[in-house]
Specification:
Length: about 375
């Protein structure tokens, strides 16, 4: 008796979901390459799984197929992205697939890199390896938004976040924290899922943040730090400057202060002079610099004013709102009501996603 088609589709989705779980482990930490997950199945039994290596190499398929003492002949490979078929810094994954005599390959999204786009199927068919695309396509569309933006446009993927009280204040006059430890842990996880983080001198002067990931085991996934400091006003005593020898740190500036620049250099801070536009650093130049350096997932942690600028100028792709259950009233400062009214008027690409963090909530808005 034949297996119903919907059961077959369910099976493929299940294994592709496992592949996406693998890819999610290195999201934002694979350099210029995308985060890819790979699962290999033989006789309906999982025999190998992997994800792209930290900083992008080796690729997920190569790692999954390098497991010794496993006979991969006639097995099925599931990959979240079309396997590469071009020679770059490493041989193509299609060659590794052919070498191991796989039976078939399923993938979720085509590789937007023009060197491989829609070429895997043609190449693998020469070796009688069947390929099937668009498995779990809807998940792939969202997961690879950042990579598609990087490859298909002049922009990079930008997400931003704000934490507020229930009455939308972003600061408490008497306490450092507005949200609870679960929200703060989630914020650190967000940092780990981005290859770069950006803030302003105003935020550094006010809060003196570290802008790193402090979750046990994920410290190495701390993003590279970028600071907007037009007049070089950030003191060398701030945490981000003092730890620049451990985490790569850049300052975008315009006003030249040679004495300060020399001091920053001693702290291993990289400085980049940016032209002015409307008396502010030209943000398009900043994006161009990040893109040229190979960054494509930027997290912004700044105040209302800078978030308003990003929203007004259509820079934000995803926005995260950490929402406390506490009313601050007279204890609160810097109310963000106007900003959230503006977000609510935007036609969002995706409905808000809510995650409960005990008394806090996290809302995610896909803006473009």
């Amino acid at each position: 008796m034949s297996t119903p088609k919907n059961n077959i589709n369910r099976k493929h989705k299940y294994f592709m979901k496992l592949a996406y779980n693998q890819a999610g482990k290195v999201l934002g930490n694979t350099g210029e390459n995308p985060a890819v997950g790979c699962v290999i199945v033989k006789n309906n039994v999982l025999i190998s799984l992997s994800h792209t290596n930290f900083n992008g190499r080796p690729h997920a398929e190569k790692i999954a197929l390098s497991k010794k003492k496993i006979n991969f002949k006639d097995s099925i490979l599931y990959s979240t992205l079309e396997p590469c078929s071009h020679h770059g810094k490493t041989p193509p994954c299609t060659d590794v697939i052919k070498k191991n005599n796989l039976k078939s390959v399923y993938f979720s999204k085509f590789d937007p890199d023009k060197r491989s786009f829609k070429k895997a199927k043609k190449k693998l068919s020469k070796y009688n390896i069947k390929t099937f695309e668009n498995v779990y396509k809807s998940v792939g569309r969202n997961f690879y938004r950042d990579f598609y933006i990087s490859k298909k446009t002049d922009n990079i993927y930008i997400s931003s976040k704000l934490a507020t009280s229930k009455d939308l204040f972003i600061s408490d006059k008497h306490n450092k924290w507005i949200t609870n430890i679960y929200s703060r842990g989630r914020a650190h996880l967000l940092r780990a899922n981005h290859d770069s983080i950006l803030t302003t001198s105003k935020t550094i002067l006010k809060d003196d943040p570290m802008l790193n990931c402090r979750i046990n085991g994920l410290e190495k996934f701390s993003p590279k730090r970028f600071l907007i400091d037009k007049n070089l006003s950030i003191p060398v005593t701030s945490k981000v400057i003092k730890t620049a020898n451990n985490i790569e740190t850049y300052i975008f500036y315009n006003f030249v202060d040679n004495f300060k620049l020399k001091k920053l250099k001693k702290f291993k801070v990289k400085t980049i002079k940016i032209d002015l536009k409307n008396n502010h650093l030209n943000f398009n130049e900043i994006i161009f610099f990040l893109k040229k350096k190979g960054f494509y997932r930027l997290l912004v942690e700044a105040g209302i004013k800078f978030n308003n600028f990003l929203l007004e100028n259509n820079y934000i792709n995803d926005f995260y709102h950490f929402y406390s259950n506490e009313l601050l009233g007279f204890k609160g400062s810097h109310n963000a009501k106007f900003f959230f009214n503006r977000i609510n008027k935007i036609k969002l690409n995706e409905k808000e996603i809510r995650i409960n963090l005990f008394q806090d909530k996290l809302y995610k808005y896909s803006i473009k």
